[in-house]
User: Fold these one by one.
Assistant:
Number 1:
Amino acid sequence: MHQTSRFLKITLPALAFVYLLFSCSKEVNYNTPVSSDKTKPDVVSNVKVTNFNGGAFITYQLPKTGNVLYVKASYIINDETGKSRETKSSYYSDTITVDGFARKKEYEVKLTAVSRADVSSDVVTVKVNPDTPIYQLVAKTIKMQADFGGVNVQTANPYKKPVGAILLYKAAGDPKYGIFQQNFSDFSLINFSARGFDTLPKAFATYVTDQWGNNSDTVYQTIRPLFETQLDKSKFFENRLPSDTKIGFGWSLSNLWNGNNGGTGWHTVQENVPLPITATFGLGVSAKLSRFILYGRSGYEYGHGNPKVFSIWGSDNPAPADVVLPVFAEVGTVLGDWVNMGNYAWPGPPSGAPPTAATAADKAFFNKGTEFNFPFTAPRARFLRLAVSESWSGATFAHAMEITVFGNTK
């Protein structure tokens, strides 16, 4: 499949997130009444440098000149591109932070004191030696591996600084790589998958960037995506366990896989029952699962008993024993024969409207079903438990209309 049309695919909300995430370099405006004192400020003195990853703290003694408004630092952050930065610190502080440096090396920073009349002092040149920038440290952890219908990308960011992992793809016959998917985060782990590929070998590459536009070396890898198929719903079966929540209104758990998103589905009793609201069913086959689509109840979009926060637990045991599931557990938690396969939150209305005031477009989006991914590390399973810890209304009952599961049964 030719994927060129998906290059540079990034939504407006994602762009807004990137802007917010990477806006910390915005400079402060020092707008004060113009002073008539045109005296040239003295220079800062007693300068000291404390280096850190990708930057440095510079402390100094302010000049005794009384009309100093701020201290300005001007510096080149990337010798290859010539990109520069300018940061300011008010006269209330004796420290200025310089960051965004592309490499671990010596850089020159020019410090000037600026008066309220916008008169600059002579320049004091300071040398800083920032340690290895965070984006380069994160890039050393890049891991690409085959995933269902595509590739999985992971990077470790224990520093929790904003970085982006950029996935590139070069289709057969294309002269060069293009951006296929981007993921920006300050989380300790970036973990995402790109899908939609057949199982033939594919040329992928990944690099890490930061908010100042510094890019790491690119890691190239040829990957053969894993086979993925929709699991056969005719093999699914109810497997009620003692701790499962009672079903009400004459509905049935088997309605979750009858291929009909309307009509009746799975609906528990509207009683004060303990959370999570739980249902257990068998897949009829052992499979390495990749993703699933869950359909909520139409007419009650973002409300009533539709799941808002839920987990999927799985077991590959041919006859898994019952266990009372917790309201929350970390992914990978093992309880008896069951393992937490994933924790999920149903996204709110795409328009940004409150759930109680969802637009017609929001409701149409909801009724298309929502796709969720299983972590790539999730084990094989032949039984699943849907455990709803919060419904959109906050009530102690839940309902859903259909579930479609994908994975590799081989």
Number 2:
Amino acid sequence: MTKAIRIFKTGGPEVMEYVDVEVGEPGPGEARVRHHACGLNYIDVYFRTGLYPQPLPAGLGMEGAGVVEAVGSGVTHVKAGDRVAYAGRPPGAYAEARVMPAAALVKLPDNIDFETGAAMMLQGLTVQYLFRRTFPLKGGETVLFHAAAGGVGLIACQWARALGVTLIGTVGSDAKGELAKQHGAAHVINYNTENFVERVKEITGGKGVPVVYDSIGKDTFIGSLDCLSPLGTMVSFGSASGPVPPFNLNELASRGSLFITRPTLFSYTAQREDLDAMAAELFDMVGSGKVKIEINQRYALKDAAQAHIDLESRKTTGSSILLP
């Protein structure tokens, strides 16, 4: 038997239970992975609360790193003994070991440890697709990135600096603002003491920005639209404050023919060749030192509920991991 977190109903952090589970052998296209570290991400909250529905009982967690123990038929890109990391569905990473689709696994380079691997995959691949594919940055742009001191945000600050991009980051405290600046944000805005729309217009000389990357959702959505220059792109990739409410498409027209997209990592990594290319670029950025993964919180797997409490109360900075 193996220890894992399971939910038998949706709700608050208290619905997570630390239980014994039977792992079993991998079937066709599957692999059994023994985790050395598991990632913690806001998407886990969405599954726990039922915002993202799934059949119950269910596991949580989309990201982990460890060693392959066994593979099923048809699996050729990884083998028993390989060091691997992943970010992908179905949830279930909050576990000592699991059987999972092998298609999500990529080999972890020797120069990247398990904790970094578990902390970087979902957040790092998210920044890769946001900056390289959703709205490709060439260098020289000024962009707005919300939650700049979070796990995705700190990676984005560093990646933007490496690309020669001026990143304006929003944060919830002065301390978080200092953290974002240390990681490469050119400007920071404390949304609790400043109007971020007014500050963006001030920083850009009234022009606004060509793209806003927004994982906050409801609380920042309209303000984000107001920060865009004509023909700008709104990238809404999360809903930390709640889902974006219905809105009139004329809101896009009246602000200068704006574009809007709601991407997910799993659409961008659906094809094996895309996942391999994205992971290779991420590993290169981390391996070269251009992007450092800041693991600022570590929790025992059994303390996953406390990890969620801290995450939802915005007490965390950088990345968080669970240790089996």
